[in-house]
Amino acid sequence: MRARPEVLVVGAGVNGLGTAHRLAKAGVEDVVVVERKYPMYGGSGRNGGGVRAQWASLSNLELARDSIDAWKRYAGELGLHTWFRQSGYLMLARDRDKLDAMRERARFQRQHGIPTHIVSPQEAQDLAPPVAMERYVGASYCPEDAVIFPWPVVNGLREAIEDHDVDLHTRTPVTDVTTDGDRITAVGTPEHTFEPDWVVNAAGAWSSELAQMAGVDLPNTPVRHQIFVTEALRPMLDPMVVDMHTGLYVNQDGRGEFVTGLGDRHRREEVTHAASFDFLRRAADQLTDLIPSLGSVNAMRQWAGCYDVTPDHVPNLGPHPELANFVQLNGFSGHGFMVSPVVTEITKRLILGADPRYEMSRYRVDRFEQGTVDAEAMVIG
Ligand SMILES: Cc1cc2nc3c(=O)[nH]c(=O)nc-3n(C[C@H](O)[C@H](O)[C@H](O)COP(=O)(O)OP(=O)(O)OC[C@H]3O[C@@H](n4cnc5c(N)ncnc54)[C@H](O)[C@@H]3O)c2cc1C
């Protein structure tokens, strides 16, 4: 066992595993990942697989836009099928004010190389034939937005790090962290003590809890979100469709199932994986309002997971201001899967002392005190 790794990654989700993989590929020999349960236990095994560049802040837009480019190559690089499909996001507006705001954002996105445009209800209908379009006044549409199937990505990363001789300890929760001055000196689990040079906090909805073990704060809050899935039907819906009024989102996946998500009516701020009947009833009602022909199909599965939400809906990246070797890779709200290719590359570059290539002041944990916040307004659910 490597007790003194160069890098100890806490959390084996897409971002922890992705960072370990990039570091190992770059030649870092001693990388260890510790995971309290198993690799798909957190958000990486519970998300909707949505990938979009339609963002209102440069902080999220740049991460997502460049990740979409990377996702195109990802399957080939890892030698696996990710089910990455660029069939667009169609974001529906019910009133003129909302549509005007979306028009502004579409202009902003085009300035940054993203081909978003506003479409009429008729054009939206052509893009999404089964949607009842009467209540919508228009939509924004980006044909490069996409969906991906998260599970093969996470499984592929797990295999890839094993090929690179990274140690992965599952069922191994971090339970205590020792610090000395501005550094973490030891990380304890029930069976081992590690003395790493660097610690990466990729603990998802538990990232604040981990930070507290190290005696520092993060501005993150865990918030429950849920999804339900129908039986498989013949292909009829190409883009991800979002009702910007209710936050309901739905896409028909490669197997023909409709995957539907919606925020809870009463925001539940705790780490819980309990799924609720209230969600299922509301989401099913809203889905059948949106796509009436789904009224008689069967719901097959439902689950809950947690977003790790920051006040500005922008992730925390880079060393914690109070602990120089404690690298943050968390606070991803509902978009931590889609940006994974870029945020793991940034994290690798920071650890190796290379230029991260992005304006990092927007992602620093102390951005709220430093006045460098670039808050996100285009949040769904
Ligand atoms: C319902 C839902 C829908 C979503 N939809 C989308 C979407 O469409 N697109 C998108 O991009 N994102 C989406 N997300 C968000 C996305 O899933 C997450 O942002 C992303 O998966 C985070 O990955 P991660 O690797 O950072 O963390 P996680 O996948 O959460 O992994 C963190 C891991 O850390 C482990 N851990 C925690 N504490 C400890 C500890 N003390 N010791 C050891 N291990 C620990 C956990 O067990 C967990 O496995 C959604 C999330 C949910 C819940």
Q: Helix and strand layout, with pairings?
A:
Blueprint (H helix, E strand, L loop, with lengths): L6 E4 L3 H12 L5 E4 L15 E2 L6 H21 L10 E5 L2 H16 L5 E3 L1 H7 L10 E5 L3 E2 L2 H14 L3 E3 L6 E5 L2 E6 L4 E2 L3 E4 L5 H7 L7 E10 L9 E4 L5 E4 L5 E6 L13 H14 L8 E11 L6 E5 L2 E8 L9 H12 L15 H4 L11
Parallel strand pairs: 1-2, 1-12, 2-8, 4-14, 12-19
Antiparallel strand pairs: 3-7, 4-6, 5-6, 9-10, 10-11, 13-16, 13-17, 14-15, 15-16, 18-19
Helix pairs in contact: 1-5, 1-8, 2-8
Brief overview:
With 381 residues, the protein is α/β, with parallel strands linked by helices. It has nine helices and 19 strands.
Structure characterization notes:
This protein is an alpha/beta fold and 381 residues long. It folds into two domains: 7-46 and 151-220 and 312-370, FAD/NAD(P)-binding domain (3-Layer(bba) Sandwich); 85-145 and 221-309, D-Amino Acid Oxidase, Chain A, domain 2, CATH 3.30.9. Helix content is 28%, strand content 24%. The protein has nine helices and 19 strands. It has helices spanning 14-25, 58-78, 96-111, 121-127, 150-163, 207-213, 277-290, 340-351, 367-370, and strands at 7-10, 31-34, 50-51, 89-93, 117-119, 138-142, 146-147, 167-169, 176-180, 183-188, 193-194, 198-201, 221-230, 240-243, 249-252, 258-263, 299-309, 316-320, 323-330. It has an eight-stranded mixed β-sheet with strand order 5-6-4-14-15-16-13-17, with helices on both faces. A six-stranded mixed β-sheet has the order 8-2-1-12-19-18, sandwiched between helices. A hairpin with a 2-residue loop joins β9 (176-180) and β10. α2 crosses α8. It is globular, with a radius of gyration of 21 Å. The model has no long low-confidence stretch (mean pLDDT 97). Bound molecules: flavin-adenine dinucleotide (FAD).
